[in-house]
Amino acid sequence: xxxxxxxxxxxxxxxxxxxxxxxxxxxxxxxxxxxxxxxxxxxxxxxxxxxxxxxxxxxxxxxxxxxxxxxxxxxxxxxxxxxxxxxxxxxxxxxxxxxxxxxxxxxxxxxxxxxxxxxxxxxxxxxxxxxxxxxxxxxxxxxxxxxxxxxxxxxxxxxxxxxxxxxxxxxxxxxxxxxxxxxxxxxxxxxxxxxxxxxxxxxxxxxxxxxxxxxxxxxxxxxxxxxxxxxxxxxxxxxxxxxxxxxxxxxxxxxxxxxxxxxxxxxxxxxxxxxx
Length: 276
Known about the structure:
The protein is an alpha+beta fold. It has helices spanning 22-29, 91-104, 171-175, 180-183, 198-208, 211-219, 221-232, 243-266, and strands at 55-57, 65-75, 80-88, 129-131, 136-138, 144-145, 164-168, 191-195. The strands form three sheets. Strands 1-2-3 form a three-stranded antiparallel beta sheet, with helices on both faces. The longest helix has 24 residues, at 243-266. The protein is extended and about 90 Å long. The termini are far apart.
């Protein structure tokens, strides 16, 4: 939680006084930073006039507060913190923080956020086989779903603004298919949305099926314990410094204190020396 009153806030950036304090001036300088202002185009509900880089957010069944997000990259073998990144408290910024820390270290197991699975009894995207050479999907009935069904006179981009490509089945194929009630009962033909980064997502899905991934999932409890230790033992429930640089400094010092405590336990105690 940031050092800011949760009951005070302004509606937009233009309402901030750039000369009021250092934290405001620093926030205005990081509006394009992917970890803070540039993380999302969505405007915050409320902006703190004392620490505007902190995001107005709330956990389940708790009042909203201004807060930062503390992101760790952890060596699960010994629960040692390898990297730290401070961001504003939204998921987009946390994802970018993970990428930043990966660039500075090594690649861990990363879970794919996949919302393509259906629960209404109809076929999910995983029931369709993708042919990378032909760049099309094959449905359970053996028909092809392609991103283009006709040629255009002018060159068009296949990807939408959100980075997805739509693959469509033929309306005639779907109308004559006995599987239509289980595939697209409320649509004339089936559509499949594929991300332009789907090849990387498929690689992550394949890793998620390995035994090593199952082990790392169990070891992730060590990561959550570090954050619990951060609040309960070190007392870092509320920051004392303001602004992005203040959050970075406090998170880095807290991680260093946690690592020193951990490393002190890992170093073997030397055998006592008896003098006769």
